[in-house]
Amino acid sequence: MSKTAIVIPARWASTRLPAKPLLPLAGKPLVRHVWERCSKVRGVDAVIIATDDMRIAEAAFEFGAEVAMTSPRHPSGTDRIAEVAARVQADGYINIQGDEPLMDPAVINAVAEALRDSDMS
Questions:
Q1: How far apart are CA 20 and CA 83, in angstroms?
Q2: Mean pLDDT (the chain, rounded)
Q3: Nearest 5°: phi and psi at 30?
């Protein structure tokens, strides 16, 4: 049986909009909307917020998210996910950016199903 993890990179020091993951949208931090949608995906073993900042981590803990602290030196979300992948055992990782609050869980589910149906070994 394969294990799939969704990893949501969320960094504090965005060059265009610092602190973006915590900006409120309809009364909740932006990253919470993303996490809630990812949490609706069936057959995923973990939904992890990968962040470089304790302010994001603390907010994520408040709404029950699993958090992986990562280096602030990563130039991209992909690098942040690679760091998480080196520590979290899974057969497949799905990258959902922390600023995509309207991502349809059905789309993520289709990706998760495709990973499960493929030969991830």
A1: 21
A2: 93
A3: -50, -45
27: left (phi over 0), alpha (psi -120 to 50) or beta: left
Q: What are phi and psi of 40, to 5 degrees?
A: -85, -10
Whether 105 contacts 43, CB under 8 Å? no
Taking alpha carbons only, the member of 34, 66, 36 closest to residue 51 is: 66
Check if the beta carbon of residue 41 is closer than 8 Å to that of residue 105: yes
76: left (phi over 0), alpha (psi -120 to 50) or beta: beta
115 close to 2: Cβ distance less than 8 angstroms? yes
pLDDT score of 38 more than 90: yes
Per-residue model confidence as pLDDT tens digits over 65-109? 999 999 999 999 999 999 999 999 999 999 999 999 999 999 999
- The confidence band for 121, taking pLDDT boundaries of 50, 70 and 90, is very low
Cβ neighbours, 10 Å, residue 57: 19
